[in-house]
Amino acid sequence: MSHTLSKVNASAATLTKNRTEDSVVPVSGMCVTCVDGCIGMCEIGKSAYRGHEVIYPQPFGVITTAAEKSYPVDYSHFNIMGTAVGAHGIEADSDKAIFPAVKLEVSFGHDNGIKFRYPWGIPGIGSTNIVGNNWEGLAIGSALAGTGLTIGENVVGMDPEAVIKNGCVIDTVDLKRRVKLYKDHQRDGYGAIIVQANVEDTRLGVQEYAIEKLGVECVELKWGQGAKNIGGEVKVRDIKKAQLLYERGYVVLPNPTDQDVIKTFEQGAFKEFERHSRVGMVTEESFAKRVEELRNAGAKYIFLKTGAYRPADLARAVLFASRYKIDLLTVDGAGGGTGMSPWRMMNEWGVPPVELHSLLYKYAKHLADKGEHVPALAFAGGFGFEDQIFKGFALGSPFVKLIGMARAPIAAAMVGKTIGRAIDEHEIPVYIERFGSSKDEIFVTSSMLRKEVGDREFEKLPTGALGLYTYYERLAQGLSQLMAGSRKFALKYITRDDIAALTRQAADISGIQYVMEADQSEVDKILNS
């Protein structure tokens, strides 16, 4: 393994590569021999003619991206500890302690009034094209599965059909659509649609509008995310839309109202404007005031999402969430997923997931030991499979109630949508065609879901939703099997000793026992009995 943790100067994310791919300087990422006459395929070379465009992953609107930095410790550095003895949450009977009997439901909030059928949700995904183009599948699939979905930042501000008067939103098209798609498919009260707000959203009164006009019960304050330590950004190809966003108060680069910029754009020298959000300025006074405003506006539940900021900021998030009775605190580790974030920033800033989540556990325990209120916690940052979900619950036990995932669910929804398009066009790839030629044959959950929602409703379901729902069904069965193997038949029984650290470094960072020292006191009792 290379002694460097980062891959620099060439990445699929920026559509760049080295000329001498097998011979690269580890520190700079440059070719060992940089030749006069090279057309500039590497990131330095591409920056010589496209400049700031190369800061961002490409192409915008059809990709999600996450850092490719190899952190010293990640969740693969822990293993799940199974046992051959007993059962928690069910009778220790081989005929009863079977994995389908595992309960994955979770309830949280100040009154335990939020209930999810599965213990995960999609944290804030906002105004990027990749999300907008797949929202139908994400919203309907999440609602059918009974899990949470957060409408992220800037959705109202980016909506050209939103009606804004005196600086406040009074009507929308896109936010209405996003909320309605989820609510129309919600079943038996499971799941929640959450509306998040950044600086611009707060100024526009987005959350007050969502509560009053759209019946949204859950809102989320946003301090940041794992993908970057600045505000959200997107690219805009339409100059009229860029000008509209500029008028609405966004930072738009280059200035789309400048005559020289307009002329350069029309000449084709560049094809995209950048829309940026402002960074928030956190103070306890402003935080307390905003929480009170939202409660007065009718918010039933208030969440906080923060990113991979320095430990002091994490401590502030934990303390404020405790002091002002926040219903859920989501903490997103560095390297996180995005539709558009500066590529080098994604790789080189912030506290990685295992370190950040270990600090969060430590801070939460500190408050709990003092008798202070600890809100429900959610871990986010690179989760995609049931083993990682189990490890997250174990590392954060007993405070973690949810795991946040974004890129993996988006991938499932995109694949489902793509398969649907292939079915409609009668061009199903051979890799898929072996399972059948209709959505009933290809999506393994179809017969069960058709029975539950009825033929008429099932026929209307977009295949993006089937993709997400089916992926979630896989995660649920996989997590149930892992939990049964550890003899934990409900989430509340998962504890920190259900995982072991495979390296001393992982043990030191997390406080989880090193595998060779796990169960030592019990081992001594057994051998000396």
Q: How are the strands of the biggest sheet laid out side by side?
A: 4-5-8-9-13-14-15-16
Q: Could you give a short account of the major beta sheet?
A: 8 strands, parallel, barrel
For this structure, the quaternary state is: single chain
Proportion of residues in β-strands: 5-15%
Q: How many strands? A: 17
Mean pLDDT: 96
Helix content range of the residues, please?
25-40%
Global morphology? globular
Low-confidence stretches: none
Q: Give the N-terminus to C-terminus distance in angstroms.
A: 45 Å
Please give the count of helices: 21
| Rg on CA atoms, Å | 24 Å
Structural class: alpha/beta
What does the secondary structure layout of this molecule look like, with pairings?
Elements: H1 43-50, E1 78-80, E2 106-108, E3 114-116, E4 120-125, H2 129-132, H3 135-145, E5 148-151, E6 163-165, E7 168-171, H4 174-183, E8 192-197, H5 199-204, H6 206-214, E9 218-222, E10 233-236, H7 239-247, E11 251-253, H8 259-266, E12 273-276, H9 284-297, E13 301-306, H10 311-323, E14 328-332, H11 343-348, H12 353-369, E15 376-380, H13 386-395, E16 400-404, H14 407-424, H15 430-433, H16 439-442, H17 446-453, H18 455-460, H19 463-485, E17 499-501, H20 504-510, H21 520-527
Parallel strand pairs: 4-5, 4-16, 5-8, 8-9, 9-13, 13-14, 14-15, 15-16
Antiparallel strand pairs: 1-17, 2-3, 6-7, 10-12, 11-12
